[in-house]
Q: What sequence folds into this?
């Protein structure tokens, strides 16, 4: 399927952009169902610090969406995540570097348009999720698909729960350029 959005043009007269979006959701409102996560905010702050201290990102270029009471953080609702992803890639060009970190629940749902080989879409759960209805997947973010997923080298940073079955799987502990 051809995207209606324009392809990126190479522009060499401006420096590369480095931006990051770190999203963390605790789901305190889902605690009666046993779905609350307690360390997601720490994950987002750790990734932010890593990007600043090790990879030269500027604090002003890192957006945090956290479900806390800090007025400097927007809540990680579906609408705010979508807007922040659009802001993340605004003006993107080859050579720019973007990081999207999500610490929260995710799952797979049935792919309805036949675009996935495995028949499933990968989804993340925003703060305002209604189980089995609200979800945020790659089809909700066409601008991100076009600019990041199709045209720009990407690296995923995942927070992985180390289940007993995964103890034999090595973790990647060092990254190239982020």
A:
């Amino acid at each position: 399927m051809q995207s209606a959005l324009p392809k990126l043009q190479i522009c060499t007269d401006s420096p590369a952009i480095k931006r990051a979006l770190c999203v963390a959701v605790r789901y305190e409102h889902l605690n009666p169902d046993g779905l609350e996560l307690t360390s997601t905010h720490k994950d987002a702050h750790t990734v932010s610090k890593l990007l600043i201290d090790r990879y030269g990102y500027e604090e002003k270029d890192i957006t945090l969406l956290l479900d806390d009471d800090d007025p400097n953080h927007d809540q990680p609702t579906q609408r705010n995540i979508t807007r922040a992803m659009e802001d993340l890639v605004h003006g993107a060009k080859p050579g720019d570097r973007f990081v999207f970190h999500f610490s929260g629940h995710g799952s797979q749902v049935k792919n309805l348009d036949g675009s996935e080989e495995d028949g499933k879409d990968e989804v993340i759960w925003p703060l305002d999720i209604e189980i089995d209805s609200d979800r945020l997947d790659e089809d909700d973010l066409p601008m991100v698909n076009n600019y990041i997923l199709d045209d720009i080298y990407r690296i995923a940073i995942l927070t992985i729960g180390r289940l007993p079955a995964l103890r034999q799987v090595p973790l990647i502990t060092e990254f190239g350029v982020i």
In short: Confidence is low (pLDDT under 50) at residues 1-11, 141-178. The longest strand covers residues 18-24. Strands lie at 18-24, 62-66, 97-103, 106-110, 120-124, 136-137, 157-158.
